Q: What sequence folds into this?
């Protein structure tokens, strides 16, 4: 099924049970523009969440995560969550919901053809795909496959066989990225595989928190509290896995957002400084020049 608008759950007579029952029966694609939306509770199937503009907020296990352009979020089957678009900027959302039986068949096919791809999964029909529920960067290959799917839907409508072919290759890319994430778990400094996976999940919580709240002046203690790790443990494990400290990672996020604002807006540099969570304009300019080899003003001029 293909939807180009989001349902209003507060519309009188809206049948929520009927709406959500479709997610168990069909592969569903959303490509919609909205400046205000709210779903207070959904228990969904395996799904991919991304946006082309604006931002969409998700609450998962008491964590609030902002999905912004260039990122995607995977949610596993039977995961309870809420989501909202709070404006004022209009948000173009693109979400794909994979029917459970379809997703399981794709996973089993990959396991049969390359049994080392997801070595944490048993090769049984009952085992379901389980991704790390964390923000990830969209690479060109994944972005292109998603765009091709939307183009086909806009031009030809929802043809089940055609759409399933596109979704199959989209899932292949997602599983490939999951394989990469599994490689990161092996870099965690711990003896037991289960402990390494758990610590990696907590490091991802820290990353998601920084991506979602980079504009705020959050201290390291807030990041460690979110990840349920001590400050030394977070810093040591974060550096071991990602080759960078949490503070350096947060600075990269802020500089990346500043780069986008310099390219895409007319905001003065001092306003960009505040919008990106930097202490003052001078410090921001020094960090930007160190990272990009050019001042923010000159960067804007040539871009």
A:
């Amino acid at each position: 099924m293909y939807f180009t608008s989001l349902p209003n759950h507060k519309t009188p007579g809206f049948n929520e049970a009927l709406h959500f029952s479709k997610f168990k029966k069909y592969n569903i694609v959303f490509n919609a523009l909205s400046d205000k939306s709210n779903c207070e509770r959904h228990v969904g199937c395996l799904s991919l969440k991304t946006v082309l503009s604006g931002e969409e907020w998700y609450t998962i296990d008491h964590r609030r995560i902002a999905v912004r352009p260039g990122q995607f979020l995977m949610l596993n089957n039977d995961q309870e969550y809420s989501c909202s678009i709070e404006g004022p900027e209009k948000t173009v959302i693109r979400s794909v919901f994979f029917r459970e039986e379809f997703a399981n068949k794709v996973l089993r096919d990959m396991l049969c053809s390359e049994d080392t791809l997801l070595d944490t999964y048993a090769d049984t029909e009952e085992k379901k795909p389980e991704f790390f529920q964390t923000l990830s960067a969209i690479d060109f290959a994944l972005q292109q496959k998603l765009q091709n799917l939307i183009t086909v839907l806009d031009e030809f409508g929802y043809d089940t066989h055609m759409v399933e072919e596109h979704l199959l290759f989209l899932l292949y890319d997602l599983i490939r990225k999951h394989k990469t994430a599994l490689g990161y778990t092996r870099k965690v400094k711990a003896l037991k595989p289960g402990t390494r996976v758990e610590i990696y999940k907590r490091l991802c919580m820290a990353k998601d928190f920084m991506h979602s709240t980079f504009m705020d002046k959050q201290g390291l203690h807030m990041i460690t509290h979110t990840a349920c790790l001590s400050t030394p443990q977070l810093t040591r494990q974060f550096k071991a896995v990602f080759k960078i400290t949490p503070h350096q990672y947060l600075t990269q996020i802020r500089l990346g957002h500043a780069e986008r604002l310099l390219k895409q807006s007319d905001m003065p540099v001092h306003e960009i400084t505040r919008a990106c969570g930097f202490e003052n304009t001078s410090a921001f300019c020094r960090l930007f020049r160190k990272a990009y080899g050019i001042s923010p003003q000159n960067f804007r001029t040539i871009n």
